[in-house]
Amino acid sequence: MDAPTPIEPDSALGGIDPQAIVLGTIVDIGASFFLGAAVAMSFVSERAEHYGDEIPESFFRDLATDPSYLMWSAVVGAACTAIGGFVAARRAGRFHAQHGAVVAVVSIAIAVLLAVLPGGLLPSVGYQLLTVFVTLVGGVLGGAIAGWTSGRAPTPDA
Predict the structure, then answer these.
(1) CA atoms lying within 13 Å on the CB side of residue 10
(2) How far apart, in whole angstroms, are the C-alpha atoms of residue 36 and residue 80?
(3) Average pLDDT value for residue range 102-114
(4) Which residues of 126-158 are buried (b: 16+ CB within 10 A; e: fewer)?
(5) pLDDT at position 158, please?
């Protein structure tokens, strides 16, 4: 008699579909770009009367310390990562939460890279830790939702 097929991967990245991760990350970054720009523009439009026709560069540095903006940015970012995790998990069809988590880790790595490049804005350490946490939770949750709504049993053969 054959041993039953395991429902967990052999290693941390075993069973991860790289194409699904790339697709989920592209969805996450694309959604984050457009929705993040919408959040930023809402804050710009609120304060536009203070600056007139031209907004100084210092405005964007100040925005990176505005608690309200940072909160909305974290919420929108986590939601976008959840969408990317969902897409990756659906594309892979197995190990749903793991695919969502890997999308979150890749997205965090890209965000860190963009923040440390010249001209990047680094918010407080507390905010950075919060965004890492909510991004991971968002990615895993998106992947898990994909698994729950797939209607299939959680097997590696799915």
Answers:
(1) 2
(2) 9
(3) 92
(4) ebeebbeebbbbbbbbbbbbbbeeeeeeeeeee
(5) 44
Q: Which residues contact 46 (CB under 8 A, 6 or more apart)?
A: none
Structure tokens at 72: 């909305």
What pLDDT was estimated at residue 157? 46
Task: Answer whether residue 92 shows pLDDT above 70.
Answer: yes
Contact indicator for 82, 138 with CB cutoff of 8 Å:
yes
d(CA 130, CA 39): 18
pLDDT tens, residue by residue, 50-63: 766 677 777 777 77
Model confidence, pTM: 0.81
Q: Are 83 and 28 in contact (CB under 8 A)?
A: yes
- The rounded distance, in Å, linking the Cα atoms of 103 and 84 is 7
Give residue limits of the domains in the chain.
Answer: 18-149
Q: Kindly give the residue spans of alpha helices, DSSP state H, lying in 12-156.
A: 18-51, 57-63, 67-92, 96-116, 125-149
